[in-house]
Amino acid sequence: MFNFVGNYMEFEITHIRNRINCALLILIASMLGILIPLNSQEADSILNQAYKAKIFEFTFDPIIPVYNFGRDLDQTLFGLTAAYYWERNKQDYSFWGVQMNWAHIDSDRNTYFNGVEEVEDLTSSNFFGAQFMLRYYPDFFFWRIEPFAELSFGSNFFTTTTTRYYFDEDNSSDFDFNEFDFALSYGLGIGFTTQIVQQFFLVTKCSFYGGNTVTYQYQDGEDEIVPLDNFRNETSQTNYIRFQVGISFTFL
């Protein structure tokens, strides 16, 4: 009889152990079922962050001043732009970006006797820009052509400078800021990229930029001996249309 009781107790203990082991296995499987998707989501998020596209662009820019800015200058300007964009996320095809640009307004150069010695002056008027960008690519393309739209906000800086060169043994020179002013800049643009080969694209863009009132200088004649005397001050809003043609390089 004692053997029967002992065997029965051993059977119950084994049965309880098996039930505990089954419960532990179910618990572990449940936890893995929760953790594995989380780890996959985290991995996907890390991969998406690591493999977001970046764009570097360099363009040549014909610029047409409009409204009061255009009436004062009455000429087409030329400049350059370098821009860098990074993808916001992969769902809406949008990019943040920053761009730096430059445009030449006027310049005059002359050699003359200043009462003490012979010097050469180079006076130049330019403006520089720095903008934050938001670019959006719609879910549409044709052949290798993909259109986009852009918004921008930043500042333009207008400068007139004179470099004076001396004809001495050291070939020394002086540099002076004659005029400096800045304006807020905001813009709206449309354009498209055309794939050339692999990650290289031809980029073409047209943007309208508006700006608040600033004072700048432009050349108003050539009669004066001193180049700076041929420049005149003008104050107006700085609105212009900027065409851009250049190369775009996309990388991860």
Task: Describe the protein.
Helix content is 22%, strand content 60%. The protein is α+β, with helices and mostly antiparallel strands and 252 residues long. The protein has an eight-stranded antiparallel beta barrel with strand order 1-2-3-4-5-6-7-10. Strands 8-9 form a two-stranded antiparallel ribbon. It is elongated.
What's a concise summary of this model?
The chain is an alpha+beta fold and 252 residues long. It folds into 2 domains: 51 residues; 200 residues, Beta Barrel (Porin), CATH 2.40.160.20.
How many DSSP E strands?
10
Q: What can be said about the biggest beta sheet?
A: 8 strands, antiparallel, barrel
Task: Provide the CATH top-level class of the largest domain.
Answer: Mainly Beta
Which CATH architecture of the largest domain would you pick? Beta Barrel
Reported by name, the CATH topology of the largest domain is: Porin
Q: Largest beta sheet: what is the strand line-up?
A: 1-2-3-4-5-6-7-10
Shape: elongated
Number of domains: 2
**Percent range of helical residues:** 10-25%
The parts where pLDDT drops under 50 for at least 5 residues are: 1-9, 34-47
Measured distance between first and last alpha carbons: 79 Å
Give the H and E element order.
HEHEEEEEEEEE
Radius of gyration: 34 Å
Mean pLDDT: 84
- Beta-strand percentage? over 45%
Number of helices: 2
Give the class from helix and strand content and strand pairing. Answer: alpha+beta
